[in-house]
Amino acid sequence: MKILNIQAHPDDAECHCGGTLAKYSERGDEIYYLVCTKGNRGTCDRNLDIEKLAEIRKKETLESAKVLGVKDVFFLDGEDGFLCPTPELRGKIMQVIRKVKPEMVMTLDPFLPYEIHPDHRTVGILAAEAVVFACFPHFYPEHLKEGIQPHFVRELYFYRTREPNYYEDVTLYMERKKRACYCHESQVIMGGTQRRIATGDPRSIEELGRETFDELAVRISERFGKQIGVKYAEGFKKFEVRAGHLVLEEDDRTG
Ligand SMILES: [Zn+2]
Questions:
Q1: What is the DSSP letter of 4?
Q2: Is the confidence at residue 254, as pLDDT, over 50?
Q3: What is residue 255's predicted lDDT score, i.e. its pLDDT?
Q4: How far is the CA of 121 from the centre of ligand 1 (A)?
Q5: Ligand 1 centroid from CA 145, angstroms
Q6: What range defines the domain where residue 116 resides?
Q7: Is the pLDDT of residue 119 over 70?
Q8: If you average pLDDT over every residue of the chain, what do you get?
Q9: CB 118 within 8 A of CB 127
Q10: Interval between CA 11 and ligand 1 midpoint (Å)
Q11: Rounded to the nearest whole angstrom, what is the distance from the C-alpha of residue 140 to the centroid of ligand 1?
Q12: Rounded-to-integer distance, Cα 101 and Cα 219, Å
C-alpha cells in the first residue's frame, strides 16, 4: 500500500505516528512524506539565521525519514507559522497527492480542541480537502495539463488526535520512534534549552532535550496503549473517503 504523510513541520509525525510508520514500512508499505513548511522559526536562538535553520531541518527530516523507512520526501517550503488555508496551498498539496497516488493519507487532526498553531490547523484541513477532491478533474485542471491525473484516496487518518477510533500497537517500534525523534537535533536543542531555563537542571542541553522528546513520545504512546491494553500504541481518527466527503467507520477497530 502507498501512504502519504502530510505534515506542517519537519518533526510533526515522529512523536504521534513514528511507531506506526516504522511498523508499516517494515510490513512493506511505500511511505512518502510531504512537509509543508520549512520549520524555519523553530528555535530560541536569535542569532540563528532562519534560512540556515531551514537547511538544517531539511537534512534532519531526511535522516528521520530514513530511520522510519520513508521512501521519498516532498517539501513545499512554506513559511513556518504563517500558513493560511488558501486555494493555492490546497492545490499544491493536491498536486503531490495526485503524483504519489496513495491509498492512504495521514495528517494532523485540524479539529484537535484548542489547536492554536495555524500551520497545524491549515495543513490538517487543506490535506483533508485535497484528499476528498483529488478525484475530481475540474479541481485544479492545470495538473492534467502537466500529465498528473486525478486520484481517488481510500482512507484518511488524522494523528495528534483526542478522539481516536483506530489504534496501532507500536510496543515493538518505540526504540525506532525515539531514534527518529532524535534526528531532529535542532528541536532536541530547543527542548533542552527550554528545560534548562525552566528547571535549572545542570545536565547537558542535548540530554535534557532527548529526555523532553522521550517523555512526549512515551506519554502519548502510553496513553493510547492503555486504551487498548498494550504497552505502547498510537491513536488515529480514521475515515473512509468518498468523493467530496469523509465517512466515519461505525465500528472501532484495533490493528
Ligand atoms: Zn508542528
A1: E
A2: no
A3: 46
A4: 10
A5: 33
A6: 2-254
A7: yes
A8: 95
A9: no
A10: 7
A11: 27
A12: 33
pLDDT > 50? residue 191:
yes
Contacts of 175 (CB under 8 A, 6+ apart): none
234, 16 contact by CB (below 8 A): yes
Alpha carbon distances (Å) from 213 to 105, 126, 167, 185, 220: 25, 28, 21, 11, 11
Mean pLDDT of 189-214: 92
Alpha-carbon distance of 18 to 15, in angstroms, equals 6
Q: How far is the CA of 143 from the centre of ligand 1 (A)?
A: 28
Q: What would the mean pLDDT of 204-226 be, rounded to a whole number?
A: 92
Q: Give rounded-to-5 percent helix, strand, coil for the chain.
A: 45, 20, 35
Predicted confidence (pLDDT) at residue 44 exceeds the cutoff of 60: yes
Number of domains in the chain: 1
Ligand 1 center to residue 8 CA distance, Å?
A: 6
Q: What is the pLDDT of residues 128-165, one digit of tens each?
A: 999 999 999 999 999 999 999 999 999 999 999 999 99
How far does the centroid of ligand 1 lie from the alpha carbon of residue 147, in Å? 32
Q: What is the CATH number of the domain that holds 60?
A: 3.40.50.10320
Cα of 92 vs centre of ligand 1, distance in Å, is 19
More confident residue, 252 or 77: 77
- Ligand 1 midpoint to CA 225 (Å): 23
pLDDT of 109 > 70? The answer is: yes
pLDDT at 64: 98
CA atoms within 13 A on the CB side of 51: 0
Instruction: Provide CB contacts within 8 A for 8, sequence distance 6+.
Output: 35, 36, 37, 83, 108, 117, 119, 120, 122, 123
